[in-house]
């Protein structure tokens, strides 16, 4: 980790570790945790609430004039008109957590005038701390992060998130996977978007995409990716994605290959693209417009470049 951490990042790390301690204690007896449903397949636990409270108390003790945007309490805490807003997911991957599946994390980001300036993603089960300050790089524990160097999509590991809420477009996702699966080395669905983005930054995966995401799911992870040399945007490749509920992140070469494949599934796709996709999805037995058999391996660098 960088030896000269920004003071605000230090406070965020303190808050993330406090939340992580609560989560780790609770993980020792998951079956004793009280669970409730926000909606079908969308769970919240007493651990989410306790973790969020610990984070907010730590942040506002240090910066009482800052605003808060948190998954469980929204903007209830903190200043309402501050240019500094902490964006918090106290337990990303709650469904994993309540099943004892050890893929979940704490995500904390500081935005200044709408731009993410500080980021922490903390995986308490592995004690992995991902941090970034704008312009100072991204780190995992003591190691500087760089996105992967892969240039061919067919050699790439891509993570995603499957739809699980009422109203999610299942057909769209099936078509997206039909487009991508023959073209990649594999798709993965770990179940915690903030950690997915951290893994792109670390080069563990080569790209990530998902729809239906909230700012607290992607704020911290997006800065990790860009500070590690990657690109983040919506499914059409536009950089202004934070409030658009869709996210695409990858190393630059792979990003440039994913955008043409995924753009037609974006809510910002052209009317013609949306009409063609609807027709494909309603024709029985039809396949996605661009899902051929895997292409043969091509020489290094022969794939399309980043935008």
UniProtKB/TrEMBL annotation:
<feature type="binding site">
    <location>
        <position position="92"/>
    </location>
    <ligand>
        <name>Mg(2+)</name>
    </ligand>
</feature>
<keyword id="KW-0460">Magnesium</keyword>
<keyword id="KW-0479">Metal-binding</keyword>
<dbReference type="InterPro" id="IPR022337">
    <property type="entry name" value="Inositol_monophosphatase_SuhB"/>
</dbReference>
<dbReference type="GO" id="GO:0007165">
    <property type="term" value="P:signal transduction"/>
</dbReference>
<dbReference type="InterPro" id="IPR000760">
    <property type="entry name" value="Inositol_monophosphatase-like"/>
</dbReference>
<dbReference type="InterPro" id="IPR020550">
    <property type="entry name" value="Inositol_monophosphatase_CS"/>
</dbReference>
<protein>
    <recommendedName>
        <fullName>Inositol-1-monophosphatase</fullName>
        <ecNumber>3.1.3.25</ecNumber>
    </recommendedName>
</protein>
<feature type="region of interest" description="Disordered">
    <location>
        <begin position="283"/>
        <end position="307"/>
    </location>
</feature>
<dbReference type="Pfam" id="PF00459">
    <property type="entry name" value="Inositol_P"/>
</dbReference>
<feature type="binding site">
    <location>
        <position position="71"/>
    </location>
    <ligand>
        <name>Mg(2+)</name>
    </ligand>
</feature>
<feature type="binding site">
    <location>
        <position position="217"/>
    </location>
    <ligand>
        <name>Mg(2+)</name>
    </ligand>
</feature>
<dbReference type="InterPro" id="IPR033942">
    <property type="entry name" value="IMPase"/>
</dbReference>
<dbReference type="GO" id="GO:0046872">
    <property type="term" value="F:metal ion binding"/>
</dbReference>
<dbReference type="GO" id="GO:0008934">
    <property type="term" value="F:inositol monophosphate 1-phosphatase activity"/>
</dbReference>
<dbReference type="InterPro" id="IPR020583">
    <property type="entry name" value="Inositol_monoP_metal-BS"/>
</dbReference>
<dbReference type="GO" id="GO:0046854">
    <property type="term" value="P:phosphatidylinositol phosphate biosynthetic process"/>
</dbReference>
<comment type="similarity">
    <text>Belongs to the inositol monophosphatase superfamily.</text>
</comment>
<feature type="binding site">
    <location>
        <position position="89"/>
    </location>
    <ligand>
        <name>Mg(2+)</name>
    </ligand>
</feature>
<dbReference type="GO" id="GO:0006020">
    <property type="term" value="P:inositol metabolic process"/>
</dbReference>
<keyword id="KW-0378">Hydrolase</keyword>
<feature type="binding site">
    <location>
        <position position="91"/>
    </location>
    <ligand>
        <name>Mg(2+)</name>
    </ligand>
</feature>
